Please model this.
Amino acid sequence: MAVSWVERVASFLRSPSRFLASTTAEVFLVELLREQRDERVTYDVKLTMLSPLCEHPTLLCPSACTGEETCLELMSVFSHCPPKYTEFRCQLLLTLTTVLVSTGCVSAHSHASRDFLELLLKLAQDTYYDPADVPSALRSTRAAACECLRELEACCPSLLSQHLELLNGLRQQENPRHHQALSGLYAVVLRNGVHLLARQAGAGPEGLKALLGGNAAVAWEAEPDSPALTDRAAPLPSVLGPSGLGPTLQTGPDCKELRSVLSSLLEESYLLTPLSQAALLHALTEVVAMVSGVSPAIFKAQLLRLLGTSKVCLFHCTLLMKAAFTDSLFSAEDEAFLLKRLVALCQHPQMSTAAQLFYTDCLVHFPENRPIGAADGGEALPVLLTPRLAASLVPTVFDEPATMLARLNVSALVHLEEHGAREGGAAGGGLAYLWEHLLLRLHVVEHGGDRAAVVTFFRASFLFLCHFGHVERHAADLRRRLCALYLRHCRLAPHVLNLADRAQDGPVRPGWAVALLRSLQGVAVSAGGDLAAVSQKDLHWHLRVLARVAEEGQIGQGSTVDFLFAVATAASPPSRNEDWRLGSDLLAVCRHLLAHPGLDALLCPLADVLQHVARHHGDTDVRDHARLYYSLLTALSREKLAGVLANGGGGANGGRQDNKRVLSAMVVESQDLTSALTIHKARTPVFHLVAKDRAGGWAEPTPAPEDDEAAAAGTEPGAPDADVLSSYRSQLLSSGAAAEIALSYELRHLDVGPAGFDRLFSLRLHFEPSAGRFAALADVCVPRLFREGASAAPPAVTLTLRPRAPYPGTLRCSAVFTAQDELTWHAALPDVHVAFRQLFKPLPVPASWGPALRLRAFERLWDEFCSDGDGGSVGEGGGGDASPDRACSLFCGRLGEAELEALLEEHFAPFRVADPGDATGHRVLLFIPPGSHVLLRIRPQEDAVQFHMATDNWRLLPHVNDFLLSVTDWEARNGVDS
Amino acid sequence: MSIRALWIITHEKGEHVSVRFSRRFPTVEYRAKSLAGSSYQAVPEDSAVLQLLLTELGLADPGKPYVAQRDDCLNQQRTPALELHVDSSAKGILWPVLVISRGPLILACLPLVEAGEPRPPLSSLLSVSQGLTLLEGLQSFLGGSEIKTDGDGLAPRLALMPSVLQQVCPLGTPLDVPQARAPSTAGVPAAAGSPRQPAWRTGQHRGRPAVNVALTETVRCMQYGDPSKQDLWDVYGTVTCKCDVEGVLPNVTVTLTLPPNGSPLQDILAHPCVTSLDSSILNASSVDDGDGSAFSGPYKFPFCPPLEPFKLCSYTSQVPVPPILGSYQLKQQQEVNHLRVSVNLKLHESVKNTFEYCEARLPFFNRVQMSIVDVKVSSGHLDVNKEKNLLVWVLGQKFPKSREVTMEGGIRFSGQLPGPVDPLCTDLTAYIKLYFKVPDLTLSGCSVDQHSVQVYSCAKPKIVTCRELQSKEYFIWNSTGPAPVSSGQMIL
Model:
């Protein structure tokens, strides 16, 4: 049983989440508490069983309520535990503190916390001493109680501030063997009390006096509403932050009580262990920093002892004091001494590596009396650090990596400080030494240094570049040497590329990385001369390098493509042609080349490479991908290609570091590609075409062809009537323009459309005319369509229709476009209806025909359509054959004169044929492509208007009738006789 | 000034890694959460922490030559504090994770940062130096540098960790470091009414009083035999004490003295039990030219001794000459695998010619095994190790009267097996490493006179003092090949 409990606890501590997967926290807690009460269980096991509560209290007691109950249980266990089981009793106190704090139970309303505080204070004061008893046990329990109180105060500041006087009394009692614990506790309570006091507006010496004299009764019942217990304060941050000092308490010079307390604490600080001493000194430093009335000189007596110490924490304490008090405690001489001491500690043979590193970090954050720069907490060298002092901190080849990097950093800073950051400052032995050191590290790497040596060299190189990237001599030399290194050890490619990436992203002078990559490209492609001599692995690295180089737009890729071609077509060894890995490496380079800005120049050779791989590679997968890339290269526009590749490549930055493109990338690519290359179907229309004008779009007057011949023939005023018609008909036949009508629309989003289509690009509209009414239309391209405010004019779309019959019709309409998700979509548009009136055109005659000629043509046509006779008189025109279709008709509408004028202006203006001789009648000539005419003579009568019609196509009459009905729009529908 | 969690991990060159002990401090975690606000990152479970730590330490995936997260050159680990990236967000960072790693043991802890954003500099956090002190204390408790992961040493010590931590770090605030030796049973608590007892002196000594003071000096050296390269050597000394004296707060004073013309002791560091230090003692520093104050002792260290042995103080010293001056010349003969060796070692006249041991080791790297060693030595005898890649020249207890010894001869390398590889020592870059120990000698001349040890106690204790000189990293580089220079003196 006992063993199983030890194992269970160990298993819980190893992974609480896994453990609790098989049981619940509630059950486990109940079991733990039950075992604590079981008398058969030994205290050793009980001790072990406290660990889960001690380390993961919030897992087992998720609520304050459970925490409270658990604490009450544990306190009852404590009361029943014999004093001789000290270790268990101490651990129980620690556990209780942990549970109370973690579950947020410390408040006046919690019985458990009140009882527990009372218990702790009682234990801390317990001066009971019986030699027969185990005195060390008593001491341990008391020390543990003090430690619990200290932690409670740290977590809930000012919890004990009412007890300072009591604690001070305990501290000063004769021979308290746990004075260390009491001193630590007192210092924390004092520090918190002063801190909270300093934060209060208007607090002064009286507040401080009250704080120090605070001596509340031990019994907590006496003051359940103690402010400390009621409003729980959050743990207080350090007041010695880098951003300056915290709040200060204005007390005036008279702080005798505080000074005497501080002096007595400082006097005895020597008796504390170094760790407790450092904590005490730090707390007191904070107190003095906050109380203006106490001079920092109070620490003076301790300084020499602290400066000479071998303990890191104590010397660090001195540095923190220096940061807090600067020249009010440390003279300029002291500062120089302290710095010298710090430099010596940075490389003292007795110091551990970690301590040396820490001191070196302190050196670049040295708290100067008169800081000049780096107030933001960044690294800066102290002014007093001379090259002479820093000479002992140069990196050596025997240093551990971290030490070497820290020293390289400091030495570089020293050199830059001394010689300035200019190129001219490249002189001096310091830089030469650091460069030599870097070369030594390189030498180690070149001669088979292990992985750690390689990583260290590249880190050192990066650091060197960060500091001395501007020194062209060394930057260029490093580049050359890295290339040489790569040539000898191709396996280091990922390190070299990583350095290039970081140099490019980081503070290294721009261009260095590109130059390095360019040189690497040279190294890699030079292997193409004798491919048979290149090992499979090296070839793999060359391709990796070239893939990275291909990401650089500034680097020409001609040689890369040549190399790829050489690799793709190399005959030997034949196994290479089967190698999937090699093939995919090669394709990875191609992939990057597809996205290269200089792709146009590479198109043919790259296509050759891809085609060759697609045909001849031994691996099906590689062949398929090559074919895919080939199709992409040859079929897609640059923009689309870039989009596809960007989608396939994952994040630009994250992707670079992963080897994603080698193996798994193919799958990723395929999925993304599928998505990118598929045309997705929008379920509902997204946008529609809206006719541009109110009436539904008059056809734009088609510019008449510059038919000089016809014009020359027709403009002759004296030409006979027959000639008018024949020349009209001949030019009608010869010019196709008359058969077209141009309709203007605007492309607009539908008011209610699907989401995700607010910004559309590259729209291609496609139209399908209904049932042979119109000739096939060309697709219309619109560059973009944004659903934005009215400010942006919607794109205009002009449809040029070539009717096959003079009747209204419908255009079925759809569009392919790119949405903002960069996917291509297909959507139907609402049908476009072409109304009868939209087919109207003026008489298609050359522009040179004057009104007189037009009138003559009207009269001749009228006569022809209304006559029953043969068409021979009209001439050789096609009209003669259509004689059976001719018809005349009359439409009457009830319109006033003004209404008629308005109607004519609105609907017939472009088609009127003026006759100066006839003031009362109006002539309108409608040409309806492909070749029909409707002529109207409109005569106002007394209370109506007569529309006399003549046409060469009687099938139009119903449409004309409908049209006239719609435009006259009167209620009484007069009979229409036809 | 507290730590949130502590881990003890063992590994064998990156393999067989396991968290052997871990401890979390939820009350400190409570404070961390409150102080950090939105930038708070909880401590993940041990297995996750382990993986993150190994990645940062470069130990994860030992089989893979390059892992981006592990080997990125942007990770400039220049401080003892690591950043663990718990998740990919900028907030999910545990910092500062202090790590000290030696041999198979990795100790790590996460100190509390008593400030919110922005992140304060490491040097402004007392919890960092506290954490380092605790970790170093735990390291020496667990066996110092001679730790075997599965040996007898570690497991029992690890088993003691819960009770040790209850003493030294009960609620995450380090109070002390564990004593490397088992808790002293000799200590008897003081009776009531006696003066205040130091927290680091947990009892009183009962028994025969005795004071042992041992002074050990270590000399390190780099000799190049090349006029263009400056030879380097330095000396540092440690005074170790074991004081069995009675009393609650006994007072002992140890005085170090130098010979009349001795150069001053520098960079003196004293144990915290030293009650007071004179400023003149601390003035001399190795990092500057010396201000000519030329205080040269006596160096008095008054202290109240702890019960266990302790390092009273340490110092460095600049001595004018190295104790043994050597020259080493390797010459490539006509045949590829044939080297001509010539060594000369000269013991300086000021050094006592009585060694506890003295030997010179000549390793040969990046070559196959030695086949024929045709080398003569003027004194001592020569051994070839089993692997046939190392010559050990045992000089014994004394140099000859002339204080000069030589080695001459030729070595052929035509064995079957390749020898050890060292990327630094290629071609003719080679060294001799000297190992020696001289009893009753210090190079600085520093000594502790038995009669100068003062003990203020009722019983007169037996006082024993001793001193010795030992070598460490004592290199003599082959002067015919390039040698790595490692001195800041080059800059000046």
Remarks:
- Residues 182-187 of chain B have pLDDT under 50 and may be disordered.
- Chain B has six helices and 22 strands.
- Chain B touches chain A through 121 residues (CB under 8 Å).
- Chain B has three domains: 3-172, 210-321+446-466, 324-440.
